[in-house]
């Protein structure tokens, strides 16, 4: 499958230009573009890419139903510190990564390259293209790009429904709720599995299979649902094998300004506490306390003193709007230019790492409490943003299974996709409304937190950074069905039967996502250091489009390891060819006795 992203694909031009005329190069320019199965060409056009790191570059742009692809028709001097000859510049942008398309300049605009298109992307970059001003030269490309970049706004299907890519493994089978419950030792004498939400009647944003205390009855669950925002009742996410402490997740109680109480809700939380005889149930409210109080005005609120044998802890994590503005500020300081002289103060002013720190710190508190034998309940407002961050990160710290390649896929499927993180609203798949206030980089922030953990514990994770980058690229690409829609009930069976799972791609090429330094440690709990001194900006993701920033290189050991893997594959391929050649020769040799002694085959030895 073609890579969904690639900004500066340098191809040496020195030799090519000496033997190939520029006219023939223009004709061949887009001939080598490899389309995905199901991908169709929409339009191609001569255009000028206004590169923010170099001069304006002439070339050709191709728009398909999946991507925007640009290739320069002239040699471009590479950005320092690269020391190679002139290169061909290429851009490969999935249309799903486009947030906004605007016309730049008008028919009377003056100035070089002032008339064209400006494209804002969701993946930390912007693109500008210039066209000739005569004859409405941009009308066709603007209309077609706008239509196919935002297909849902124009009655068209997302590319995930058009893709015909085939893989050896069906990624939709990676997560089966009952299998995951059994792995955790459920059901048991204290916890049961209920199918009360089988038709999404109790909660339309929850999965159909839930784990609840044995003492609770289905009628109790319905009464509790009436007192929890969106009907998202407290249910088990994870249980500690030894001490039986649990992580339960839910939404805020509907206390309101009048301070309503619900005896069923209070008794139900006490059932969770009693399941492992926790002395005091800790309720972690992800919000700042002032926000939780303010939510009472809209009917929400938090658990008060009426909840016996429980303690409430606020974690001070800001809401989706604050996170959206923080990432926007970060983008402003990393693209297109990074101002070196004021870098630290500029980074601090975005507050992005501060937010990452608070999310990690909250997850550490959850993990530490559960590890010490105390059950916890985690919620924010509706229980699908900050709650998912905290529960999944705490589970990653507590359970080494989720630190494996397949286990991490299960964690995302369970805590984010199955429990109703609003991917469609937060990302805006196929939607032209770029100013939608529901958009927010909550999942991006979670993956950033995971990356921070992999940096602090380089041998604890079976997967590498490439997996995290691939996940974020396809969060936007709309190439797979994995992150489409807001919840399970909206993501009906058509998604599984008519789209491909991202895990099909990942598990068909597992070797490139493996961490060569991984050392399995089943009982180890990870406690990352959540202080500003130990957190880093993820340059490989946030600043990867800037060629002036020297990319973080693989360590020499990891680089050598990858080289040896490639060498092994090469030798195995040669060995297979020799065996096939040998078999065909033997099959074609007449069955006669020859006086010439047989020639021995040379054994093929590999350095591995």
UniProtKB/TrEMBL annotation:
It comes from the Eukaryota. It is found in: Cell membrane; Cell projection, Filopodium; Cell projection, Ruffle; Cytoplasm, Myofibril, Sarcomere. It is a peripheral membrane protein. Residues 579-608 are annotated as: Disordered. Belongs to the protein-tyrosine phosphatase family. Non-receptor class myotubularin subfamily. PANTHER family: MYOTUBULARIN (PTHR10807:SF69), MYOTUBULARIN-RELATED (PTHR10807). This is Myotubularin. Keywords: Cell membrane, Cell projection, Cytoplasm, Endosome, Hydrolase, Lipid metabolism, Membrane, Protein phosphatase. GO terms for cellular component: filopodium; late endosome; plasma membrane; ruffle; sarcomere. The lineage of its organism: Eukaryota, Metazoa, Chordata, Craniata, Vertebrata. InterPro entries: GRAM, Myotubularin, Myotubularin-like_Pase_dom, PH-like_dom_sf, Prot-tyrosine_phosphatase-like, Tyr_Pase_AS, Tyr_Pase_cat, Tyr_Pase_dom. It is an enzyme of class 3 (hydrolase). Substrate binds at residues 319-320, 380-386. The active site is at 380 (phosphocysteine intermediate). Residues 350-396 form the Tyrosine specific protein phosphatases domain. It comes from Gasterosteus aculeatus aculeatus. Residues 579-596 have a biased composition (Low complexity).
């Amino acid at each position: 499958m073609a890579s969904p992203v690639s900004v500066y694909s340098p191809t040496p031009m020195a030799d090519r230009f000496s033997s190939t005329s520029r006219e023939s190069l223009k004709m061949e320019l887009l001939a080598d573009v490899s389309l995905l199965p199901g991908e169709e060409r929409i339009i191609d056009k001569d255009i000028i890419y206004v590169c923010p790191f170099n001069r304006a570059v002439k070339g050709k742009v191709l728009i398909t139903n999946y991507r925007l692809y640009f290739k320069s028709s002239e040699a471009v001097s590479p950005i320092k510190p690269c020391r190679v000859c002139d290169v061909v510049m290429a851009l490969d942008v999935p249309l799903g990564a486009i947030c906004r398309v605007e016309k730049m300049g008008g028919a009377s605009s003056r100035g070089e390259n002032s008339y064209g298109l400006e494209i804002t992307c969701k993946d930390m970059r912007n693109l500008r293209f210039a066209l000739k001003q005569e004859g409405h030269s941009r009308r066709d490309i603007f209309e077609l790009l706008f239509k196919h970049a935002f297909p849902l706004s124009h009655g068209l299907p997302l590319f995930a429904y058009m893709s015909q890519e085939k893989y050896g493994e069906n990624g939709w089978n990676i997560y089966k709720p009952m299998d995951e419950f059994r792995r955790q030792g459920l059901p048991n004498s204290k916890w049961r599995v209920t199918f009360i939400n089988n038709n999404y009647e109790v909660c339309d944003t929850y999965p159909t299979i839930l784990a609840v205390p044995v003492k609770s009855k289905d009628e109790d669950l319905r009464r509790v649902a009436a007192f929890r925002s969106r009907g998202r009742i407290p249910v088990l996410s994870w249980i500690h094998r030894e001490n039986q402490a649990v992580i339960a997740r839910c939404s805020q109680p509907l206390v309101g300004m009048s301070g309503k109480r619900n005896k069923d809700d209070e008794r139900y939380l006490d059932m969770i506490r009693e399941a492992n005889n926790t002395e005091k149930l800790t309720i972690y409210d992800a919000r700042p306390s002032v926000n939780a109080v303010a939510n009472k005005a809209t009917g929400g609120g938090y658990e008060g003193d009426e909840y016996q044998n429980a303690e409430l802890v606020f974690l001070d994590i800001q809401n989706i709007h604050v996170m959206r503005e923080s990432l926007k500020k970060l983008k402003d300081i990393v693209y297109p230019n990074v101002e070196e002289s004021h870098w630290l103060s500029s980074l601090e002013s975005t507050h992005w790492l501060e937010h990452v720190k608070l999310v990690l710190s909250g997850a550490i508190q959850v993990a530490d409490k559960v590890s010490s034998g105390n059950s916890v309940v985690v919620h924010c407002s509706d229980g699908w943003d900050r709650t998912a961050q905290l529960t999944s990160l705490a589970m990653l710290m507590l359970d080494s299974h989720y630190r494996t390649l397949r286990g991490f896929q299960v964690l995302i499927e369970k805590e984010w996709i199955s429990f109703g993180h609003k991917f469609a609203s937060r990302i805006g798949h196929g939607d032209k409304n770029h100013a939608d206030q529901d958009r927010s980089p909550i999942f991006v922030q979670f993956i950033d937190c995971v990356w921070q953990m992999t940096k602090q514990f380089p041998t604890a994770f079976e997967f590498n950074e490439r997996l995290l980058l691939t996940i974020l690229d396809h969060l936007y690409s709309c190439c797979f069905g994995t992150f489409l829609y807001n919840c399970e009930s909206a993501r009906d069976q058509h998604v599984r039967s008519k789209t491909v799972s991202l895990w099909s791609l990942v598990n068909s090429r597992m070797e490139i996502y493996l961490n060569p330094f991984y050392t399995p440690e089943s009982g180890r709990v990870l406690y990352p250091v959540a202080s500003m001194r130990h957190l880093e900006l993820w340059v490989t993701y946030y600043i990867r489009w800037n060629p002036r920033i020297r990319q973080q290189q693989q360590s020499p050991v990891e680089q050598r390891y990858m080289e040896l893997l490639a060498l092994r594959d090469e030798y195995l391929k040669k060995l297979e060819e020799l065996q096939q050649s040998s078999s065909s020769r033997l099959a074609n040799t007449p069955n006669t006795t020859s006086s010439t002694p047989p020639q021995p085959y040379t054994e093929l030895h590999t350095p591995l």
